[in-house]
Amino acid sequence: MSAIKEAIDLLISLSNRVQDRQTATEILKVQSLISTVQLDNAALISENLDLKKKLTEQEISSLKKISRLESENAELRKKNADLQKDDGGGFASGVIVSSHFDR
Is there a smaller number of Cβ atoms within 10 Å at the N or the C end of the chain? Predict the structure, then answer.
């Protein structure tokens, strides 16, 4: 951003020293274009920050979901192991696991 400010300051200095009206007018047009670029750049920076924030929020949400699913998986494995102990490893334990994932 400081480079843009320096360019604008140089253009102001040039336009004050120039004798030719046409050249001064062109310098002022360049100054205006640089100002527009500066505004566009600020808007892009703001949009970029918003996108980074959204991405971070989505990553946090995904990590929470993964953590919740891992906890549920651990609970189901424990229930499955307990059921296999209770019924001798029969088919019923697989029904509990699959019914959970059918939701």
Answer: C
Measured CA to CA in angstroms, residue 83 lies from 68, 75, 76, 79, 86 at distances of 22, 12, 10, 6, 5
Contacts with 96 (C-beta within 8 Å, 6 or more apart), sequence order:
76, 79, 80, 83
C-beta atoms surrounding 34 within 10 Å = 16
15 CB burial (10 A radius; 0-12, 13-18, 19+)? middle
Q: How do residues 18-73 score in pLDDT, each as one tens digit?
A: 777 888 888 888 888 998 999 999 999 999 999 999 999 999 999 999 999 999 99
Task: Please check whether residue 83 is in contact with residue 93, taking contact to mean a CB–CB distance below 8 angstroms.
Answer: yes
